[in-house]
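tool=predict chain=A
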Amino acid sequence: MASPKRRLLAILYGDHLDSQPHPQAPLDELAATCSGTLELQTVKNEAWDGVRQRLQSWQPHAIFLSCGVESRDGLEQLRPLRLPDAPQAGGGVASPLQQMFQDVPVECLMVDALIQPAEAEALHAVGIQNVVMWESGRSVPMLPALHFNHAFLTTLAFPQAGYNEAFAFGSHSVQAHCTVSLGGQLQSPIMPRWLSQAPAALPTNASIPPPSDQSLDLSQGIAAAVPGWEDVRLLAPHAELRLLVCGQPSLIDAHRLSFLGEALRAILVLEVRRATVTSTTPCERLPAHLPPGSSALRCSIRSQSGATSLAVLGGPPSVLSNPGLVEHALRQTLVADALSLQFRLPPPSLPPPAARSLAHVAGRTPVVDALVLTSVWAVQVLRILSQDPSFRGLVSLGIGGVGGSPVASFRDADVQRFTSIVQSHPDASTSQAVAQQLVSTPAPANGAAPSQSLPRPSREGSEQEGDLDDGQDSELNSSFVFDNGATPGDVGTGITSEMAMNGVGHMHPGLPPVWQSNRPPMHECPEEAFLSDLAAFLRERKHAKINTDNFPDAVLNGQRLDLFNLYREVSQRGGWKVGNGINWKGQVFPKMRNFSNSHRMTGVGNALKRHYQLYLLDYEQANPADVTGDHCAICGGSDEVSTDWISCDMCNIWVHFGCDRRPYLGTFKDYSKSNGRNYTCPRCAETKRQRTS
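tool=predict ok
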């Protein structure tokens, strides 16, 4: 069933509105591209009584109230809030804003003007629970405010997008594009304020609607209601995708890309958290690393905006035979996988890619190459969305090209806006005054210098009970990885992987040089020597600031992350390239000090992968001798034979579980799950039998 349209009323005040577009309202773009999800009405310089009548008769869900811009000190800035013909406040009479929205059930008010916080907070008394406002007492340049308006209002066009999600999305886009470097220091733009009991947050797996099956008792979580639920897995081969992003080379920076990466994740989450399954086909050949008795479905999915893609879901037949559970499982695993998208930075030894202007991309706005690491299904979705003239999400992030193709929804107003933003970033040929078009400072009451501290991207993590083992790690938040020339392996689903895109060879010089470790080989290396060598590597190769007394600073299951055993267990299993062939939850986690029999963590497998990517992946690639060759002691084969690797608990050699044909062994799951059975290889079993006979 189609979602009801969100009604948006734009109340505009300013000069020359009858003859030219409003400088701060992207209403023409919204009217042209979002008519299917937004119902838009506009009033311009309307008298007080006329505005009140429109509010009461139409009863909009959201309000965009703008007073335009004015030139002060040679800079276009937001005006203070002025409501013509408004009744006077005072003497117990409510403020003009309160009177305007009295008895009108408005869900969200966006005040695109300077206003006192107390006046905005008073709107809660008339039932407006969500308020976006720019605080008076400071100068707010037009460009970041205009860019926020585009991103915020564009997000409202997503069906079921929350106002708090739209605010967080807009804020992330502004932080990515309007943060500037002045005197070698990053300075963040002034941001609007969000006044609401609901915290501003990008969408997570907690926003997925529950299963449609009303017979399920979800009071204890879906894992308790559906036997075998935790064994369902998304088989998603990784892929790299080249993006062309409006900006200067300074955009390819860890701070800016962190915000841009989280916002791009949010687009994917908004697209797939209510995705529908249009068809399913059983896989003719079961992926080798699934436990015996499993089945797999190749699913055609349709995102919220109509993008189509393929995904493979594996798990118990009892779950995959239920269409409602299949759709819910896909939503959960796709969202979790979307949250693993990361930008890949060039190696620290190389300069960032140069900006270039292309006639067919973003109207010749300067763009830079950026590389993201994600999954094949996400590449398919982003490619289709980029070709949809009505999809505005990518434009709101300044993405002008996807995989070598231009984004079709770029309009002349977008070109003008992003060209102005790009030109406002100071470089060797511009003065600091140019940057004031993006950042400004509040007027301190006591003459003290304003704070220059930068915000950090922050996602509200979710420990949702019953999440599948592809969940987002709430203790680790990184939207980028340094380029190490390595790509996680395909899991063998038959989906073609787009691993290398044209035009980005300068970003990938190949594998990093081998690291000259001062520690013993891993099989005899003590933990202290390993951590010391790893810290030295991260300082030199990734320019990380590390306090050895508090390294690592990540926490898992209430304890400091056990990097030593995490690295040892993964490298002994063939390293990162084995990918899903490693049972991170069932075999790696129990070997770490973070494991406890009573833990209730969900998504721990994906959490370990994310920690490994951030701390250990580069280190592994620079220490190839640490990785145990993935050759089965029984058949001598590698991953092309099977990926159901299991280690003998007596001699630590590795075999394919399926190659061990002895009777009564049980299933692979009996050994790989937490507190599973101990495995003894045929050679050790025979030695043990001879000793006891």
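The longest helix spans residues 254-272. The CA atoms of residues 51 and 357 lie 44 Å apart.
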